[in-house]
Amino acid sequence: MRHAPEELSCREMVEHLSDYIDADLDARLRQVIDAHNGECPPCAAFVRTLSLAIEAVRALPREPLPPALKQSLIDALRKAAG
Predict the structure, then answer these.
(1) Splitting the chain (82 residues) into consecutive groups of 10 residues, what average pLDDT does each group show?
(2) Deepest of 15, 29, 47, 57, by most Cβ within 10 A of its Cβ?
(3) pTM value?
């Protein structure tokens, strides 16, 4: 489906969602996403839900990783980086 340059599909909106939630987008793209969310209730609900989930996780107390888990994660990342 083709759309005007100032419009985004739901899929395109989701591709920018992390930057949108972190307020790390230029003003024009932020306005386009705001307009999309104003016209697309499922996307607006998704953004609200994801934003609330991120807030909840950020509010959790930070606990240090157990050393064995930390080493396991480092090993997995090194292996994936190949």
Answers:
(1) 63 92 92 93 95 94 93 96 86
(2) 47
(3) 0.66
